[in-house]
Design brief:
This protein has helices at residues 4-30, 106-112, 198-207, 210-223, 247-255, 282-302, 308-311; strands spanning 76-84, 87-94, 104-105, 115-122, 125-130, 136-138, 143-144, 151-153, 157-159, 162-170, 262-269, 272-279, 351-356, 366-371. With 372 residues, it is α+β, with helices and mostly antiparallel strands. It has one domain.
């Protein structure tokens, strides 16, 4: 019997049976993995927690400047302040100040006709006639226009009814040859250009000579490029220059520091006192505050105040006044000390003070203070 076909069939059966096993071995060797069902969509990763904010550290404001002190009268306190250029203007308040004053300002009196100022023909004085019944206060540095030439009031003066010789300085660098040309006898006052700046006032307070005042005026008119076709060097023209065009805005800002108790101003350059003006009532102050602020604004425009005790040119010779007998001592019945003798003498706080009183025992209507 032939057994060969049976052997072939058995070998074929073994070969077929081995195929799945070989396939599995091949798949294992090649690293093939059975397909997995798709995974369910997972949620997006959570956002990282925000970092903690750094602690807020408040920067303290810069320390306020330590201002040079000066002796204020009783019941006067420092008020609000503002910077005009490089100058610090501070309101001086008095909580029990009078609300009314019988005193007229020079501007009011000239406008109403209660006071007339005429040319005297002398460089150092003009004639003031108070026709009304109320006294008139003329402030240091007030400009008087007309006459032989413009003038400025040499020191604050309280003019009682009647005629007075009012001391003045020339407000122009040019000096007229006396008696050589016609002139208007009555002098005027311009509210828009009422006072000189503190640099010219420094020459008045510290040196009190026409030479120093003219030199101070020349400094201002030169620095502000004042046109001078007539060659007079008139100070009043400084208010008409482009540099002075911002004065109205400075004045407006300055009024913002005043209140119903304000009776004056103090002006500092950095920490040093330059000047102060105080009045006996809020009423009188309110009527001169615009003039004072215009003076301070012009000072800010010019930008400096010279020390005329150092920079004074050679003074003009002045006649020696006759000796006056000593006045008997007296005690002031109010809380104000009597005025210094002479007015403008150096006080213990290093300032010069000029006071206007109706009589020796009455409180001062006006106090002008200037640092030496």
């Amino acid at each position: 019997m032939n057994t060969r076909p049976k052997k072939l069939i058995l070998a074929a059966s073994l070969t077929v049976a081995a195929v799945p096993l070989l396939v599995l071995i091949a798949l294992a060797l090649t690293g093939h993995k059975e397909a997995q069902p798709p995974a369910e969509a997972s949620a997006p990763p959570a956002a990282p927690a925000p970092a903690a904010a750094p602690p807020i550290v408040e920067t303290p404001p810069p320390p306020a400047p330590v201002l040079e002190p000066f002796n204020l009268p009783p019941n006067h306190v420092i008020g609000a302040q503002i910077m005009l250029g490089e100058f610090r203007v501070i309101a001086i308040n008095r909580y029990w100040a009078d609300a009314r004053s019988p005193v007229l300002t020079l501007e009011q009196a000239l406008k109403s006709g209660d006071c007339v100022i005429r040319e005297s023909g002398k460089r150092g004085e003009v004639t003031a006639e108070v026709k009304g019944k109320r006294p008139v206060l003329a402030l240091t540095g007030e400009l008087l226009l007309g006459g032989m030439q413009d003038r400025l009031v040499a020191r604050s003066t309280l003019l009682e009814p009647g005629k007075h010789n009012l001391p003045v300085f020339t407000a122009e660098t040019w000096q007229w040859p006396a008696g050589t040309e016609p002139f208007e006898k009555v002098m005027q006052h311009d509210p828009a250009r009422p006072l000189v700046d503190l640099n010219v006032k420094a020459a008045i307070f510290q040196a009190s000579s026409n030479v120093s005042v003219r030199e101070a005026i020349l400094q201002v008119t030169t620095a502000l490029h004042v046109p001078d076709a007539e060659g007079r060097g008139a100070y009043v023209a400084a208010y008409k220059t482009p540099a002075a065009s911002g004065i109205d805005e400075l004045v407006r800002r300055g009024h913002g520091i005043t209140c119903v108790f304000t009776v004056g101003f103090a002006v500092y350059h950095r920490e040093k006192l330059v000047a102060a003006e105080l009045f006996d009532s809020t009423d009188l102050f309110s009527r001169v505050s615009d003039q004072l602020l215009r003076s301070y604004a012009m000072t800010a425009v010019f930008g400096k105040v010279s020390n005329w005790d150092i920079e004074t040119p050679a003074p003009e010779p002045e006649p020696t006044p006759p000796e006056q007998p000593d006045e008997p001592g007296y005690q002031s019945p109010n809380e104000y000390p009597p005025p210094p003798r002479p007015l403008g003498a150096l006080t213990d706080d290093g300032t010069r003070r000029f006071e206007c009183r109706r009589d020796v025992d009455s409180p001062p209507v006006h106090i002008g203070i200037f640092r030496k």
